[in-house]
Amino acid sequence: MISKPFSLTPFNGTTRSMKLLGPISLHGGHSGEFCCHAKDRLADIIQQYIQIGFRQVGITEHIPPMHPKFLYPEEIEQGLTVDHMYQRFARYFTTIRQLKTDLTDRIQIFAGMETEAFPGYLPHVRHLVAEFSPDYLVGSVHHVADICFDYSSQTYGAAVKACGSIQALYMDYFDRQFEMIQAVRPFVVGHFDLVRIHDPDYTARVLHPEIDRKINRNLDLIKELGLVMDLNLRPLTRGEPEPYPARSILEKIRSRRIPMVPGDDSHGVAQAGKHVDTGIRLLEKMGFDTGWPVPKLLEMK
Ligand SMILES: [Zn+2]
Ligand SMILES: [Zn+2]
């Protein structure tokens, strides 16, 4: 007899303590179909997860912008407008829901979305949640001072300049993240220290007393709200030595007993599930629970 792969998975509210077991990613699955800086069809990305042994995965496409100034350069190049992006996002949900139904015997798909935290984003996110009823949210901050700082080293430099110093950029980033977590209550807090992306001195920087204080404050809020954090493996794909968050922050998370779940932050078939095994080994070695909480939509404030 073939055992049911999802026997541990709750499909109703009566088994809340149940955990998901085995390889997982709760942040990623960006596809060329629905994201200009990703590659490949969503269906092929999901097939890849199935092929490498995933029995559960969360897909979290980027939300569309609400203002043209938040369009990425490649979107502008392709002549995409805010309207096009919204329609494409609607097609993402139609597609992911169809795949979820079609593949239900092979993989459990959680249809999520990765939110932003640019100024005035809250009513927009609220509208998207009401319109598309995602299974859960990943809450990310990619913008400080209206600049998408992680886009390139140039945009990072511009954000540092706008904030006045690299330390000020970190401080603004963690303040924005605090507000986002409070308001959005994302099930998963995405790449907690993404602000370090183009900073070679980040290991020392995150220990700076003022930055450290903001990091502790944000982690305390995450703990208080019962949220989950993203062990974001994308830096490993770029050849960097450690995932987000950095080791010193991971230790703070472990001591607070905040659940961490791997996220490949994949942007194409080749990245699907990449380094998840390394991430799980790291979590095991550090003493984290590797039974994963089941994603759900939390009520926004
Ligand atoms: Zn992306
Ligand atoms: Zn992101």
What's the helix-strand series?
A: HEHHEHEEEHHEHHEHHEH
Mean pLDDT level: 94
Structural class: alpha/beta
- Which segments are poorly predicted (pLDDT under 50) over 5 or more consecutive residues? 1-15
Tally of individual domains: 1
CATH class: Alpha Beta
Estimated radius of gyration: 18 Å
Under the CATH scheme, the architecture is Alpha-Beta Barrel
Biggest sheet overview: 6 strands, parallel
What is the share of helical residues? 40-55%
Number of strands: 8
Question: In which order are the strands of the major sheet placed?
Answer: 1-2-3-6-7-8
Ligands bound, unique: zinc ion
Shape: globular
Topology:
Blueprint: H1 42-51, E1 56-62, H2 73-77, H3 82-102, E2 108-115, H4 121-132, E3 136-139, E4 143-144, E5 147-148, H5 153-163, H6 166-184, E6 188-189, H7 202-205, H8 209-225, E7 228-232, H9 234-237, H10 247-256, E8 260-263, H11 276-286
Parallel strand pairs: 1-2, 2-3, 3-6, 6-7, 7-8
Antiparallel strand pairs: 4-5
Helix pairs in contact: 5-6, 6-8, 8-10
Bound molecules: zinc ion (2 copies).
One zinc ion is lined by residues 114, 140, 142, 190-191.
